Amino acid sequence: MSNVRELHNEAMKLAQLAMVAHHEGNLEKTTTLAYQAYEYESQAADLIPHHASSEPTRSILYLSAASLAYQCKELHAAQRLVAQGLSGYPPSKTEQDLKNLYEQIEFQLHLQERGEELEDEALQLSLQGKAVGPGMILYSEFISRIEKTRSLIDRTVQRLMHRNYQRAGRVAQIYKPFTQALVIPDQHSFAIAFKLIRTEDHRQMPLFFDAAQVIDEFLTGIEHISKSNEDKLKERIPEQAYYRHFVSMARDVAPDGEKVSLVGFASTKQSVTLTRQRRDIVLPPPESDEKDVKHTPIKVKGLLDYATSRQKDIIGLTTDDSEYNVLVEEGLDDLVRSYFGQYVVIIGTYDGKNIHLTDIYSADDE
Amino acid sequence: MKVNPTRTLALESLADRVPVIPQGAAGFYKQNCVICFHHNSHKSGVKLTANYRDSNPIYEICWSGEVTDQLVKCYADLRRSTDNAACAIALLLLEELTEFTGVEQARTGTTIDYYLTPQSQDNNLIFNRAARLEVSGILEENENNTIDGRIRKKLRRLDRKSDLPAFIIIVEFSQPRSKMVKV
Predict the structure, then answer these.
(1) pTM score, two decimals?
(2) CB contact under 8 A, A231 and B126
(3) What pLDDT was estimated at residue A277?
(4) ipTM, interface predicted TM-score of the complex
(5) Number of Cβ within a 10 Å radius of residue B66
């Protein structure tokens, strides 16, 4: 094989066969084929002259070769290939794809170096992006994701304990078998670990799952979200309120693509990178039982507060010229609660009396 | 009224017609397609209307072989099968209706599914006149999940500052039809 097309075609052939092997569950064959594909693709990329006129072919080939190297866990080779791609004149979209891949490689390398330090009871959260520096992160980006991850873990525990979804009020101590601790950040990107510790009160009580199972359950859910497998997530979490809660909180933890471009979670057993962007995750629609009432779409911006009602499923929104009651479906409570006292955008349908909420986000994100 | 002639697309021809699908993977893509049509009670010879610009050519999708219980079990993940099947149909249609053909499946970190190149092209600078392809499949269209809705969603997601032209193709399997848009 002497020309780029022949080498590239061979690489693609092997990459497709790797995909089939993966479907068949043959992981060893998948890795071997991906490795061979990476070798052919990197040879093809190396044949392209380092000129502006070689673009976008050169950078696309390096992106492809780096992706294949990443797939077969040749992480240092993948890093070098990304660097080669970036060293040329990549068009903006390809440049962004190369940078995104670099962040994913970094995350995996970071896990390789640090993985042994994690304990079974620990879940590591890693963040990368423009809002993140070595050992430093914008406060708001961090706090928001930490709080939502904590909420996801709490609700996962309650769900595993077969507790009905509780939308408000103090959760009984019996449903809090773990307390969460934060383990010191790593200097590499911005990583911090949650540790689930059995509470003193619960040590003597039987619990039919352990911290590692909570973390597995959490990671499986995040993986389904990341791969757009909401159907599978729904099968795993049949109760609508828990399902809505998981999707809504994971949506807010997901990268925005600007300040945070990658959110990674890892346990001792597996790692999941949440690269799907927040704007691509759609919240489940509300269930309306008022078929005779006409609903019109509405989008309003205002201050979220308690002012208009004390009813547990209704919150208040004060705009410049009006006040609204916003009806919150079970499962979206934690998401809405996280925005109390803030200026938000609310999207939903209006029945002349209440807004039936379908989405909420910070007005700063408009 | 203009009558569209029917053309045939044999799923067995995937490897011969689409460079990105090698012989060893053609069976996999074919089976994904067969499962999606079978799920909707369609048999070989089912007609698919392919909308692109102002034309609506009709294609007869043909394959050989039977759907066994074993095959259904192997492709139980219908969501994934729908995506793979849509890719196979889209690549065949693209080769029929445009000068482009799929040469690379795009990998991590991008919303683009394939890179396309003109069917006759330089052997070295293979992507210098390339386009992108984004594909999506719908197993059974309903009011919340329509072809036009998916097109709108993908148009919103596609980077407007993108350097390459892009095609969006949505394939629906219950009343088999597809829609292709060039951006």
Answers:
(1) 0.67
(2) no
(3) 86
(4) 0.81
(5) 8
